[in-house]
Each structure stands twice: as C-alpha cells, then as structure tokens.
Design a protein that fits this description.
371 residues
Length: 371
C-alpha cells in the first residue's frame, strides 16, 4: 500500500561511470513498487563538468534544497590538485550531518556471515573529512607549525602536509542523538560508540565524553537500550570475529567511513551497501560504492546498493509498505540465485558462469513486485 494520491518530488543525480545504468535499473524497480515519484534529474560530476565546466553546479544544490529529498548514483571526483570530493562537498553544503549505512545479510549471497544486521551512524561534517588541509610548503603549514612549536606541543616538519581534525560538542551531540533516536524508534537493543580516545584525548576523547553524556540522557527514556564503547581497532577485530554482538554503531567521520566498508564486507561487499545522508532540512540517499568507470555501459553492474538506498528513501518518505515489498523482492531474487549479477554469482558459486546483467536482475525484482 502506498500513500494515497501522493506524488513525491525527488532530485535524481544519475552519477558517473555505472551510475546511469544502475539508476535506470533502480527507477524500474521503484516504478513497479507503485510509489509515484516525479524525478527532477540533475547532473553532477564528470557529466556536469563537460556540460557546464563545473563539477557541482549550483542548480544541483538548489534542486535538493527545494525538493528536500535526493537520490544519487556514484560520482567521480577527478584526481588532481584543486578537486574536492563531491560527496563531502554535498554533505557539507547541505549540512547532512548524519550518515546512515546499514549492513544486513541476505540469504544466498555466499557471504562469510549470515544473520548480520548492523546500522552504522557516521558523523558527516567534522573530523579529518572536514577538508581543513594545508599543502606541503604552504603558508598555512608554516604558521601552524610556528604556533605548535611556540606552545610546546611538538614539531611539524617543513616538508609535511597538514590536515586538521575538528570534533565539537555540537557535532557529537547531534550524531549521538540521531543514533539513539533511531534505536528507540526501531526497537534496537544496543548502541556502541566507536572511538580512539585512548590516543586522541582532546578530539576522540571529547567525542566519547559527549556521547556518554547523551546516552545518560536517554537512560530514563529507553532503559532497555544498552550503550557501550570500543576503541576502533578492537572494534574491527570484534566485528570480524563476532559480528552478531553488534547492533547500532556510532562513529566519528573517518572511522565511520572505514568501519562501514568493513561491515559491508561482512554481508557481501559494497554492491549491497546503501547509504543515507540526513540533515535537518534535506536528505540525500546514495550507494556506498564508487563509479567503476571500467564497467560502464556493459550491463554488468550490481544495482542492489542503489535500489536499497531507494528503499531507505521510501521509508523516509513514509512509504513503509512499498519499502518492505521492494526489500523482500530483492531478498527473494538473491536467495533463489537464478538471476543475479556476476559479483553475486562469483561470491555464491565461485564462478561468474550463468550470471545475469544489470537489466535482467532488475527485471527479476520487478517481476516479484508484480506477482
């Protein structure tokens, strides 16, 4: 059942590389779900650079701010001086401070683990991804090195590049509150704070302190939710040896990026890894994987991560029933294993023989929805 007579206006950024073809696959599935979406297509990345001379035209940001919801394929940031990550730029420009990355097992993938159901919350605007960097030999490095030495805090070599790691009370409170609110709303039992407070006492140490303070505020509201914390390196070991002990993770920016990829590996890889970026005003949904330009146009790529990102979008739009139907259809197609893409076939059977293309896989999901 979908929201009656409701058409949702959504900004759609097809992306680069495999982006356009997995986007078409996703659109066919969402259409079959019965939800009415008015897609406002915007170009960013390499396609926008060729057409407008800009990687991220202001029209893209205006569209997202106007529609409040966006879905995007993978974007390529050209390698070279002067190009900042487009994904990071979008998150910062729109203040999408909460990055949600679920890692959920699907039966029949052949992944090393079954029964994994982890949701990772990553702070999206601070930490080393804040983009406060100074090039080797720059005036910025020289001046900061002087201050560091004057304060007796150490020595920065003249040939060093420099990145700053800001972590604030404000940024930490809101990501921890987002994780706790999610746990309460979704009947989750445990929230684990990931950090490196034993070494970085004034950044990760502050992060851990504030997260614990927020957890204490929720103790009376939701006493059933256990909150603990783990140092990031030990957490990675425990994730690999005993992933079923984890439920909701909350991480600073850099660790969240790394640990979420590890979690994706537990359930079969980035091809199954969706993501959501949520702020107070806008929401942007995207797969975790990259644009894989060498596979572009070959009808080979796995669109599951983008379709699952669209499922997260449907839930955000209040289309809960449609979201569950699409998720169930994906699970059934993967479990049957008759029409799956090469990466899923290789993981399941150890060979790509008998695998299907992007379009055929999406059509199999559509067929489940239409039955």
């Amino acid at each position: 059942m979908t929201t009656a007579n409701k058409t949702h206006k959504v900004t759609l950024i097809p992306g680069d590389g495999i982006g356009p073809e997995i986007t078409e696959a996703m659109k066919s599935v969402i259409e079959a779900s019965g939800v009415s979406i008015d897609w406002e297509v915007q170009q960013a990345g390499e396609a926008a650079l060729e057409a407008t001379g800009e990687l991220l035209p202001e029209s893209v940001l205006e569209s997202i701010r106007r529609n409040k919801v966006a879905l995007k394929g993978p974007l390529t940031t050209p390698i070279g001086h002067g190009f900042r990550s487009l994904n990071v730029t979008l998150r910062k420009e729109l203040d999408l401070y909460t990055n949600i990355r679920p890692a959920q097992s699907f039966h029949g993938t052949g992944a090393r683990y079954d029964g994994v159901d982890i949701v990772l919350f990553r702070e999206n605007t601070e930490d080393l991804y804040a983009g406060i960097e100074f090039e080797k030999g720059s005036e910025g490095v020289r001046r900061i090195a002087e201050i560091v030495e004057e304060m007796g805090a150490g020595t920065i070599r003249e040939d060093a590049g420099l990145s700053l790691k800001p972590i604030s009370v404000f940024g930490t409170r809101r990501i921890m509150k987002a994780a706790m609110d999610y746990a309460v709303a979704n009947g989750r039992k445990k929230v684990t704070i990931i950090h490196k407070a034993n070494i970085m006492k004034h950044t990760d140490g502050l992060y851990l302190k504030v997260c614990r303070e927020v957890a204490a505020e929720y103790a009376e509201i939701a006493p059933e939710i256990e909150v603990d914390d783990l140092i990031v390196d030990f957490a990675c070991t425990r994730l690999v040896t005993n992933p079923e002990r984890f439920d909701v993770l909350v991480c600073p920016n850099l660790f969240g990026d790394i640990v979420s990829d590890l979690c994706a590996g537990l359930v079969g890889g980035l091809g199954l890894a969706p993501g959501a970026n949520i702020g107070d005003d806008c929401a942007l949904f995207e797969p975790v994987h990259g644009s894989a330009p060498s596979y572009a146009g070959q009808n080979l790529s796995n669109p599951t991560a983008l379709i699952l990102s669209a499922v997260m979008m449907l839930r955000h739009l209040g289309e809960q029933c449609a979201a569950e139907r699409v998720h169930k259809a994906i699970a059934e197609v993967i479990e049957e294993g008759k029409v799956i893409t090469y990466d899923l076939m290789r993981m399941r059977e150890g060979t790509t023989d008998g695998s299907s293309g992007t379009k055929e896989y999406a059509a199999a999901i559509v067929a489940k929805l239409q039955n």
